[in-house]
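Continuing the batch. This is chain 6 of the set; chains 1 through 5 are on the previous pages. Same settings as before, nothing changed between runs. Recording input and output for traceability.
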Amino acid sequence: MPNKDEGIRKKVRAAIEHEAHIDWQSHPLGLAFSDDGALVLDGEVPHIGAKKLALRAAAGVAGVAVVDHLRVGVDSDAGDGAIRDAVCRWLLRDIDFQNCAVHVWAKGQRETLQQAGAYPSGSIEVAVTDGVVTLVGQVISLSHKRLAGVVAWWVRGCRNVVNVLAVVPPEEDSDDEVVDALRLVLESDPYVRAEQIGIGSQDHVVTLDGVVSSEGERTRAEMDAWYLFAVDRVINHIEVR
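Output for chain 6:
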């Protein structure tokens, strides 16, 4: 069994290096088998795209069930309280959540920051531990679930987002839904001119095109797509002029 496990680890490492372009010297990832035989990926990756590509590459190795413990490396020393407060500020000022109740967990206590509006659109609870943001509750659409997750990723210091928001009533996912959700995200992002960006999606692989005025805006739009729940890959054809 140890030889078999080592062989699988070598294949997974090679797949991650090839697919996610992760330099193992600067980002050495942990590859350990759990008691039930799953492969646990642990450690820091440079950005959300590398995280998703690494998980996809590992899952593509035959016979491997993958457990995600990867975190995104950050250049901020923001504490959990500051991250939590920033996530809540984004949610509270976004028009798409104005009728959604917002609660926060701090020091073991649940505090209500916003009651549901006249036309309730869900309830979101925010908690942060070691830079990992957890979103629990329910929202009215997959687009709202995805937007809430992206909002959490926008906060400096966020190392991962665990988005377990339920969609009530249930909604079937599709590429059209991914496009609608990303359009909503880009329109909410103050650093992106959404009207200049085209969006396509096929099998949850997002393609971006259009023209923006800076490399920073181009990168920001790509990261917004990577942040979306259940997006597997992003192809960025946006031009800078």
